[in-house]
Each structure stands twice: as C-alpha cells, then as structure tokens.
C-alpha cells in the first residue's frame, strides 16, 4: 500500500498547504472585520481537511473507473452550472455560487477537473481518429458548453482556464497539427470580436494592464500596490505579519488574487523561490506520472491537470508581477476559496491515483 | 497497450518547454522586482506608510561671561497645511490670503502639491495666530518653531552674528558654534494605512529632542556697553567710514568687548547690507603705521642692541636713504633723541635707524613671532591673515617702510594681541571669544583653553616697553589725550595713510587713525584698540580722535572691574598702586 503512494507529490502538497495557511493567516490578519478574518482562515483549514479526506477516499477507486463515470460527472456538473445561472447566489454582480448557509460552493471550479476527466476519456476513446474533424468538433462541444455557461455567470477567468486545458489535451492526444494550428489561429483572429462582448470592467482591466500608472488611483491601484509589495520584500522579506503593504491595507484582494504579493513582501525572494520550487515538483511530477501511465486516459488526465495547475500559477503570478492583465485567477493551494482549493487538492489526488495504479507489478 | 505509443514524446517535450519558459520568465521578473528595483519600490512603500514628524530642538542660548542673555530662542507658531485634507484649495487659499497676507497663487500652488506637508507662513505674529486659529480651516495646522531673538539689539551684534529662517547660523558666534547651538532634532515616526489613518497600535519609533548648548562668551555686557557707547559717540560726531574697538584681557586673550560702527540689529539682519554686518576687527586689514613701531623697538631691546638712554640722530626731519626715491620725513623734525623718545615722539627716522641696527632678518623674525601674517584662530568666521611679505620679497625700501608700519597690513585683532604681549609680560596669546559651553543640564562641556600661548619676549623687555609706552601717554607724548584720571595708562598712536587701491601708492586725505594701549600701565588688566577709518582731515591723528576713546573706555571699564573685584580681582588706582602686587 505505502509503496504505491507518491511520497514526493504528497510531501510537496503538504508543504504547499502549510505555506498556504501561513500566508493566508497573514493576509487575513488585519482584515477590516475580525470575525470574518477568523472565518477565512478556519474555513480554509476545513476545506483542506475535506480535500484530504476526499483524496484518501479517491485512492480506493481506480482512476480508470472514474474515467468510465466521467460523462456522468460532467453532466452533473453542467447541471450545477445551469442551476447556478438561474438560482445561484448573487455576490458582487455575478451568480457563481450555490449557498448552503455558512458554506457555498462554486461549480465552475469543479468544472476545471471534470472537463479534464471527461475530455480525456472521450479522447482516449477516440484513439485512431486523430485526423478526424469529428474529434475536434466533439471536443469543442464538450469544452464549449460549460465555457459559455461560466462566461454567462460571468466569470471570465475560470472560463479562460478551460481553453488551455482543452488545447493541451488535444495537443498531447495527437490531434492533426493542421487542425490544431487552425484552431489557434481562429481563436487569435476572433479575439477582436471578444473585445466587443467583454464587460466594461473586463475591458478596463486590459487597459489598466497596458498602462497601469495612468490609472494609479483607480483600477491600476491593485497592480501597482502589488508590485510595490513584491519589490519591497527584497531578498528575505519583511517578516511574517510584518509586511506594511499587506498589513496596512494597501494590497487589495490579498487573500485571493494578490496573495502571492503577501508572500513576496513578507518572505521575500527566498520565499517566492521556495514556492516556485514546490510548484515545480508538483508540475514535473505530473509530467513524470503522465509518462509512467500505461494508458492514454492516465496520460491525458495527468497532462491536463499539469496544464490546469500550471496555467493558474503563471497567470496569477504574472498578474501580481504586472506581466499579465488582472483576470482574477487564484493561486493554487494559497488563495482563499473552498471549491477552488478542493479542486486543486483533488487534482493532485488524481495524479497520485494514476501513480498508484501504474507503479505496482 | 500499443495505443499509448501514439502519445508523441515530441509533443510532451513541447509542453515541458512551455512550462519551463513560463518558469524562466516568472523568476526573471521576480528577480528584477525584488533585487534590481527593490530599493525604489521599498521607497515607494515607505513613502506611503511612514509619517514622520520632526520635533525641532530649541537652539541654545548665547550669554555673556556673567550669564546675561544675548541670544535666545522662543517658540512661535508657524502655519502649515496637509493638502490631502483640503477639499477646496481655491477657497482655502483665498481665506489664508486674507488673514495672513500671503500671496494667494503661491499658496494655491502649494496646496495642489501631492504632499502631506507644505508651509503656509512661518513664524507668525500672535495676532495672526489668534485669527487663523479662530478660522478653524480643515487641513491647516500649526507647529511651534523656534525663533531667534537678540534681546540687546545691536549690542555685540558683530560677535553674535545671526541665523536664517531655518535657524542656521550665518555669521559670528551663531555660525562658528552652530554644532553646539543647534541641538539634535527628535523624530516621531508613525505608520498610516491605505486610508491615510494614523495607526497608533503600531509602535512608534521615537528619538527625543536634545536642545542646543548654551555658549558663554568672554564678552562682558557692561564692558561691551561702554565700548559701544564710546565708538557710537565718535561715529556720530565725526562720520568716519568706520570705527572699531576691541577690549581684551591681555593675560588670557579673552575678548571682553568688540564693537564696530556701522553696525546692525541681528533681529532685522535682512534690512541692512553686508557692509554693516562685517566684523571689521577681523575681516578688514590696514597698514598699522606708527603703532607698529613697537615691534622693531621691542625687538631691538630684546636683542640688547640699544640702551634706553642711547641717543639716536634723527636727521632734523629729513633722511636720505639709498634705495629710496623720496627722503624719509618726520612730522616734527628732531635732532638727537633717546631710544625712549623715538617712540614717545613717534619719529619715523629714529625707528628706521633702530630697525637698521636690528637688520632685516631679525626684524622679519620678530614680526612673525608677533603673529603677523597668520590668523589668530579666534572662533569667529571670516578672519583675514593680513599682508606680510616673506623676506625674499622685501625690496631695498622695505627697511624704511616695514618698521614704521608700511608695506605690511594687519587686522585690528592682530594688533591688539601684539600690544597684549607687553601688557602680559611677553606672551603671545590666542584671542578667545567663548569662555565656556554648557549643555542643557548645565554641565560644562567645553572651557576656554588659555594654555595656548607662547612666550616671545622676556619680561624685562616688556617692562621696558610698558615704561616707554607710558611716556607716550604723558603730557608731552603724542597720546596725552589717552591719559586716564584715576589710572596709569600706556599705549601708542598711529596715523597711517590708506593705500590707494585704484591708483596705487597712498591716497590723499585718507587715513586710519588708531590708538592701542593698556591700563593700568605697570600691571595691565585690559588692552584696548581703537581704529577710526577715514576720519575728517582736522582730526586725522590717532592721538586726536582715537586716544580720547581709549581714555573714556578704559576709565569706565577699570572702574567697573574695580567694583566687581570678585570677578576681576584687581584695584590699580594711581593713589594705591603700592598696595598691589
């Protein structure tokens, strides 16, 4: 049993979760309302526990069986998205949540993993049809339905994650290169059209990204404060709970989107590199597991998970560093958010599962 | 399992490459922010959260030797604004303009700056303060600033100097003792959050204020007052270019009084030009003329080249010398004069003959020993070292010019110090202006160093010189007007033509009349120098215009010292000289 546990992955995950607790604790330490403050941290701890229990349960099921029920999982998740759209709880102008009293869940987060499971299952079934347009069309449909539902919430960031996940799966699966390139070109050419359907706040984020100092006291505030926080952290940081940017409320959204800036300010370059190293282990362990897997489904799921986690990491950090526009993607294992955290922990659980069922013999 | 071979290793490698590139890009950016631009960003961070309040120290007092205040600092209100707290800068600037009479546009410009602190008007009057306090304008605040006051006005202004609006010493004592008077500012640092609220929960970093030290001068206000009164009288009566006076304790070099006319009120230093603020005693040099004759005379006595009753032929007033185009003249012509009488009558020819026996090398050496050509190192700014040519630059005429105080220029301070050598029995002292410095707690942290003196003449020579110079003040001497009623006195007059700076040579009708003397003659308590720059023609002689000033000052000062025996410890009245050591 223990031989089948990927200790490297498990220990890295634990280290990340502990680090995440420390950073979140600091980020919420001087939040405006102290009772909510406690909630952020405690809720996160509860979600992590739930996630770890789920991983444990997951380990008793062969991932291949999960593949077989992935269509059902997918359909259930799409139903939840529909439910959210019509009956979900509205917070800050967006319907993203299903609320159960003190906790609420965000089906769009689970969709990230569900899509990987379902699309990978479909592609592994479609082996031999790499040159068929039919494969591409079905893949686009599988991805497109939840994507549109999530966009409608609206939640641009989460919707965007589905695209690189799909692209990675198609690419690894071996879709004819011609189709692949055509797909990407179509996407790029239609991006001006996307500008037209973007909401005003989404447009302003892109404008701010292009010229942040112009919007210094408005929409650009967050990015500038984030850069100041990161830079002033210098090599060793200002110390835990000592970051002036974080503790004096200069950093907005510091428990979610800008949590990396809190780490960077208080733990400095050293702390950031440590985080990146832990991420590196997870990502490259995922690639390794993908190579270890003896079936297409295992290979595709592992690659999809690596793509999803990697995309989150680099888009989020890129945003806090001022390299990419603010899209509102959280940072895996660090940002506050139950559904997201659960999805990330379960994703690593899936990797461990693939490892476990491919490591014996 | 054959299917899985279709997963292309190349494509997987491509994904790995993408991941690696993202890593590289992120780390590079992180490096550039946290290590390359770190200091700039750190500064940004500090600028937004640190609020720093400076607490200005109180500038130290300047007192006379007996502790009477000559410069003090008082806290007066100044007005400043925090532009972030002002909602309508136009309206606020208009109101400030009405109350404080400040330029509205200037104020408006300041109120529009993105700063937390801008000055509106500094060191306002009490009425202004009451009006603006009553107006209760949001964003307008007060801070107590220290303002310098000179309670005695013009008294000793050239010694005291003054400070600028930021309390930085610009001249005089205020400048040279800046480091002591300044004190040390205290700071209170606090943090503010993104909503610009001060956070009291954060521990403040405080450094407490240390007020400036108190500087006690060697000046005695009473003596200073006497000196000022007398130079003022001369200045107002004869309207010379300038008048200067120095009263020195010959034994310690302590300056007891120093005054110049024209003068200024340091409370309003900005209202007069630099000419009036100049401390001419140390910044101006002049050819001393006859007062300088004592150098050659004392050198000749020290070298035992003359007996005091030895007769010297004074050529009946006209002495032709080789190397000199014009013959040397005496104002009155004399035949044979004793050594003593050469000085008493101030014969140019006699003095030159004394110097000739001394020789140029010895003469040069003695002038140097008397401290000419070098600063006295008094603790006041702007001191000049005069003009004293090295021996190899002396011309053939020098030996007929230098002994009688020509071809050489000195400051008044150098001259009064030279005469103090005879008064104190042979010591060249270092002039002192500061008697001691005390810190806020009253602990003395610096005292006058009176050991910085050098013996340059024997006490016998000095006793001889005192006797000779006493004769100058006698009834048939050149300075009979310097004779005191109650005390003995000694000294020497000088009437030097001023150099013509435009045409070269000497200016017609432009003189520096001077008298330098000490009293009581046999055991002096004070040396006094009086110079009158460009007096009117009829009173151009030192014996006429400067000697009476010496008399008036010396008489009053000695009487004052006598009545403060505990302080000055001497009594030298003519009628009880015998009782004194």
Written overview of the protein:
The complex is a heterodimer of chains A (361) and B (581). Chain A has one domain. Helix content of chain A is 72%, strand content 4%. Chain A has helices at 7-29, 34-58, 63-68, 70-87, 107-125, 133-152, 156-173, 177-197, 200-210, 221-233, 244-247, 259-292, 296-320, 338-359; strands at 89-91, 94-100, 103-105. Chain A has a three-stranded antiparallel sheet, covered by helices on one side. In chain A, a hairpin with a 2-residue loop joins strand 1 (89-91) and strand 2 (94-100). In chain A, helix 4 runs antiparallel to helix 5 (107-125), helix 5 runs antiparallel to helix 6 and helix 5 packs antiparallel against helix 13. The longest helix of chain A is centred in the C-terminal third of the chain and has 34 residues, at 259-292. With 581 residues, chain B is an alpha+beta fold. Chain B has two domains: 52-100 and 119-217, Penicillin-binding protein 2a (Domain 2) (Alpha-Beta Complex), CATH 3.90.1310.10; 221-579, Beta-lactamase, CATH 3.40.710. Chain B is 35% helix and 21% strand. Chain B contains 20 helices and 24 strands. In chain B, helix 9 packs antiparallel against helix 19 (542-563), helix 12 crosses helix 14 (348-358) and helix 17 (412-424) packs across helix 18 (459-472). The longest helix of chain B is centred in the first third of the chain and has 28 residues, at 9-36. The N and C termini of chain B lie far apart (128 Å). In chain B, 45% of the residues are buried. Classes of the chains: A mainly alpha (361), B alpha+beta (581). At the A-B interface, helix 7, helix 10, helix 12 and helix 13 of A face helix 1 and helix 2 of B.
